[in-house]
What we know:
The chain is an alpha+beta fold. It is 25% helix and 45% strand. The strands form 2 sheets. Strands 4-3-2-6-7 form a 5-stranded antiparallel beta sheet. A two-stranded antiparallel ribbon has the order 1-5.
Amino acid sequence: MRVEVIDIEKTRNEAKKDILHRLPLVSRVFQFNDVIGDIRLEYIEFKVLKYEVISKSKNNNLFRRESQKENITILVNTYNGHSESVDKIPATSKKYVSKSCIRKNKINEDDLISLVKKQIIKKLTDKLKFDSLSKVNIEINILEIKSIYKPYWVADFRGRNIFIDS
């Protein structure tokens, strides 16, 4: 499957060192085992959502409304649902990745779009309540949906999966 992938920065050995540093020292000492099982490379899908937000505030004038347009880009992890607003999309390259290396999504795309839209509305209404006392209408349109895949090193340590950014 040919997909857009963020480049790999860490090698397998660097990831193994990071995993050993993340494990608590007490558990390593009491269990007498620093052995990490299988380390494999997996790809998690991230959705890049571009929204156009139009906010119209109603002033004392009957016929005039002030409107502001803003573009917001949000990067959403489809495996755990974590989202963050970004200024620019990470650099990607097209690569062939087998389907067995891609981690399955836990969140449906339609649900994801509506949840992010609700988060944007909540943040903007909280911000605008303090900025002005006038009534504000918010309109949100989705401009673009794009999928990119981010590589993670996944290690099995006593039945627990540990994820390390690569």
